[in-house]
Amino acid sequence: MKIAALQMRSGVEPEANMDALEALAEEAAEQGATYLLSPEVTVVFAENREQLAEIAGPYEGNPHLARAAGIARRLGVHLHIGSLATALPDGRFANRSVLFGPDGVVKATYDKIHLFDATLSGLRDYRESATYRGGDRAVTAPVGDFTLGLAICYDMRFPLLFNALAKNGAQVIAVPAAFTVPTGEAHWHVLLRARAIETGSYVIAAAQGGQHANGRATFGHSLIIDPWGRIVAEIDGDAPGVAIAEVDLTKVTDARTRIPVLANEREFAAHPVLPQAAI
Question: Which intervals hold domain CN hydrolase (predicted)?
Fold first, then answer.
């Protein structure tokens, strides 16, 4: 089974982004891919919360998801919208991943669990949780012959989520992202390869890339990594495009047999080291 990472340069106009998605999906399907992953914030990459509030609608009856369902049906593929912002009743948004089957029916949704809240030296505080509500459940879903685990961008820095996905049967883990250029140059390849190695899973990471209409710049370099940590497909740069590779599930079995991390894992307690009494 061939899988494809669709690299995009999403802007602030949803219809233009959906046009770009459809063109890339057609290109991937023509090359035989039957599972297609788009990046984080596929539908709109807003400049700020106010702009997002003007554009992003609720999940129910979402016209952009309806169009994605139609693309999946027309091409006969699993189309995985890496994420889009969906409006919630409390005024925040869910950063939601939506997986469509070849019949256009939603097979799974996942809300990004880990939100980036940080105080950055010399810069303003960044609080993703002020705009988004984090999810609280790990999600896996069947896709053809394999089980897919769902994650989004910042999630890749949290190995316990990937461990949980693999222990719940995931053989391929999707990581749609919109990584900044400095963090991408430093961490993108090494983190994704580590997540593949430690779980014995394929990792497919569809990225945003280039200079966006909202003023942001993203790293690109969409990747597909095999269970031994080898990069088997990559878009070498930030231009829109398609990366395709074939999933061989015997490689998952082989990696997990040779390095049985999941089977050898043990629970343990962490205890502080207390001062020792003088003898």
Answer: 1-249
Which of 245, 179, 135 is CA-nearest to residue 191?
A: 179
Enumerate residue ranges in the chain where pLDDT < 70.
Answer: 122-124, 277-279
The tally of domains found in the chain comes to 1
Q: Which of 13, 22, 50, 153 is catalytic?
A: 153
- Catalytic residue of the set 2, 112, 234, 251: 112
- Quote the percentage of the chain above a pLDDT of 70: 98
Asked whether residue 194 is assigned to any structural domain, the reply reads: yes
Active site residue 40: yes
CATH number at residue 87: 3.60.110.10
Distances (CA, A) of 128 to 45, 92, 179, 262: 14, 10, 14, 32
The yes-or-no answer on residue 112 being catalytic is yes
The reported pTM is 0.95
- Amino acid in the structure at residue 78: H
Q: So what's the pLDDT on residue 125?
A: 79
